[in-house]
Structures are given as C-alpha cells and as structure tokens.
Amino acid sequence: MRVVLAYSGGLDTSAILALLREQGHEVITVTVSVGQEEELKGVEEKAYKLGAAKHYTIDATREFAEEYIARAIKANALYEGKYPLGTALARPLIAAKVAEVAKREGADAVAHGCTAKGNDQVRFDTVLRYYLGDEVEILAPVRQLRLTREEAAKILARHGIDVGVHKKYSIDENLWTRSIEGDVLDDPLAEPPEDAFAWTVAPEKAPDEPLYLEVGFENGVPVSVNGERMDLVKLVSLLNRLVGAHGYGRIDHIENRVVGLKSREVYEAPAALALIEAHRDLEKMVYTPRELRFKNMVDEMWTDLVYQGLWVEPLRVALEKAIDWLNQWVTGVVKLKVYKGSLRVVGRWSSNSSYSRSLIDYNEGWYPSDEEARGFITIWSMHSLAAAKARGLRG
Ligand code: ARG
To answer: In degrees, to the nearest 5, what angle opens at C-alpha 355 toward C-alphas 280 and 293?
Structure first.
C-alpha cells in the first residue's frame, strides 16, 4: 500500500514509519510546521533514514496564526476556563494538509500516531474522513497495537535510531501552546517540576521590574505591541518570549477529555493567556451587557466543538458568524502589567466604547433625579418582590 504518514519526527511516528516499512508499505511522510521550534531539516533526514519514499515539509505557521489562532482569540477560547486549545487547534490544520498530500499522491491509506486514550485521534480521524471519505483507509498503529513508548524505542533501535525514551514527558508544541504530559505530571497532587517548563521562567526567578505592554487590537485581532505593527506570527512569538520571561503563562489543569477520562494537563502559553485576557477586557469596553452574555455562551460552544474534535461541525461556522460580527467593533488598546508570574490589565481604550467618564462620575454631569431613580427601582424589582411575597420567602 501507499501510505501517507503524519510525521512529527518524534518517538511514536518514527516507530510507525519503521513498522510500516517492515510491513512492506511505501511510506510518504508529511511534517506540518505550526510554529514548533524543532529542526525541520533533521526531521526530513530521519524520515529518509527510516525508509520514507518521499518527504513533505509544509510550513503552515502563517495559516495557523491567521485562520486558527485569530479565531481562538476572537472566541476567547479557553477550554474549561483554562486551556487555550493549542494542540486541539492545530490538529485539524495538520490533518487537512496530510489529506491534501494523500490526494495528490493517490494514497491507499493515511496514518497517524495517536493513542486510543486521547483526543487527538478524534480530531485527526474526523477531519481526515471529511476530506478523504471512506476510500482511503486510516491507520493508527499505536492505537491498534497498543504500542508503548518502550516498544516504540525498541523498534527504532532495530533501525539504529535512538529517539530517546529518556525524554520524560510527551510534549506537543506549536506557536500557541506547549502541552506537557506524562511522568510525574500524571500525579495530580504533585507539583510540576521545573524541568517540565521551557517557555516560562519560574516566577520566583522572574525580574524584579514589572513589564508593561500595550497591545493594539483591530476587529478583535491583535495587530501591534507598544505601537509597533506586526503580523500575528511575529506578535505571538514576541509575547511568548517577553511574557514568559516574567514567569507568566503556566497552566495546571484537570481536564475532561472527549474519551471519558479526566487528565492532569500542564501547559505553557504566555502569549495566548495574555492576548485572551486583553481581548476579553476590550470586549467588555465595547459590548452591551446582553452582547457580552451572549458572547460568553457562543465562545464556550465554539471552544467545546474545537476541543472535542468537531472542527467540521457546521455549527462552528455559524458561531463564527456571530463571533466575527461582534468582533468588528473590538478595536482599541489594552495595557498589561506582567510581574513575577502574574498578569493584569491595567488600562484600556476603544473608540467604539460606550464608556463615558462624565456619565459615571459621581460629582458632575448627568445625574438621575430621586424620582427617576425610585421609579426605575420600583418597576425593576416588581417581579421579584411580588413572587417573594407570594411564597412567603424569608432571609
Ligand atoms: N490535552 C490536550 C488536548 O487534548 C493536549 C494533548 C497533547 N498531546 C500530546 N500529544 N502530547 O488538546
């Protein structure tokens, strides 16, 4: 068979490549870059060393930022209030690129390295099915063979490659988030050791001086830092570096997976957390209270769909219509203060805001008369007072 393999160069996908070759298949490897820092040249070399017939390196970082990260920011996407969806967001894009190659190469099957216990298999399989239908087979050897990391390492050793089980953690990294799993992190009571982190310094070791940042937004998307305009790829990498250096961006999360399990997840996402915090604040400057409450519901639905592997669900597109519509006024500036692992919004401005200093001032400007205020309160509380009285509610 001609198999197109989603290849990261890591332990699992390298073992799969070796296995598929041992089974006599022709394997074409595809590595999709979504802003992870690893050396792509080395990944290609390893693919050929393990017997790939052909290798594709596809740089999708810009597309990831503009079509995926931008939407996540507009939707304030934090799964269960905490996880900025890095891995979940990148999977549908990677799957789409792999499907594209599978079509071009006339593949009989596509393969990926997901286990049966994770969300990623749901995300990959669903998007691959969407693009490839039932004609092309989906192979998931880790899931099928219950391949452990030790077994994977053994397979590779047969081919003279040491990918190293010595790497303690299972790490998935892209421009938006670094996801860290496994080893001691599986004990939800144990504090994540310092060696789990790579993008953030320990807050205790962060500089004594706070960092101030001014992030400019246009239509809900960040476009500048401290007045300097830049594209989203540059802006996110810059904030990851600046904010991470002040110890902000670590996440310790008990997460409900799609596949019925609770897991303890550790993430680093300095830029994602900073940008969502800033964006949410700016939305509050702009939206009516009703819009804000509606937006919270829509955001949560969007985030759940993406986390749960349903990128292809038509409702996602419908939700985005509402999200984009409301974001068209989210333009302005947010001031952030980052200090030893904490981040606060300390100022914001938008020309589309209905905030009025003279209206809110207690001492001057508009002031409702006593009669207006009483009338409002009487009618406002009528339902509640009448119902409470009818039921004899106390306390
Ligand atoms: N729990 C996260 C998610 O489902 C992160 C998964 C990380 N994947 C990995 N291969 N380490 O999106």
So the answer is: 40
Distance 118 CA to ligand 1 centre (A): 7
Domain extent listing, the chain = 2-170, 172-349, 361-391
pTM equals 0.96
CATH topology assigned to domain 172-349: Argininosuccinate synthetase, chain A, domain 2 (3.90.1260)
Q: CA 142, CA 137: separation in Å to the nearest integer?
A: 15
How close are the terminal C-alpha atoms of the chain, in Å? Answer: 73
Q: What pLDDT, in 10s, does the model give residues 33-47? A: 999 877 788 999 999
Annotation says 170 is catalytic: yes
Per-position b or e across 237-248, b if 16+ CB within 10 A of its CB: bbbbebbbbbbb
The CA-atom distances, in angstroms, between 326 and each of 76, 217, 296, 377 are: 13, 14, 12, 31
**CATH class name, domain 2-170:** alpha beta
Q: What is the pLDDT of residues 198-256, one digit of tens each?
A: 999 999 999 999 999 999 999 999 999 999 999 999 999 999 999 999 999 999 999 99
Q: What one-character-per-residue DSSP string does 189-241 give?
A: TSPPPGGG-SSS--GGGS-SS-EEEEEEEETTEEEEETTEE--HHHHHHHHHH
Where is 304: in which H helix or E strand?
helix 289-307
Bridge-based pairing state of the strands 262-268 and 342-349:
unpaired
Mean pLDDT for each consecutive 10-residue tract of the chain (395 residues)?
A: 96 95 97 88 93 97 98 98 98 98 98 96 98 97 93 90 75 96 96 97 98 98 98 98 98 98 97 98 98 98 98 98 98 98 98 94 90 98 96 85
Tell which one of 11, 265, 266 to mutate to probe ligand 1, the residue whose CB is within 8 A of the most ligand atoms. 265
Distance from the CA of 140 to the center of ligand 1, in angstroms?
A: 16
At 130, give phi and psi (nearest 5°).
-60, -45
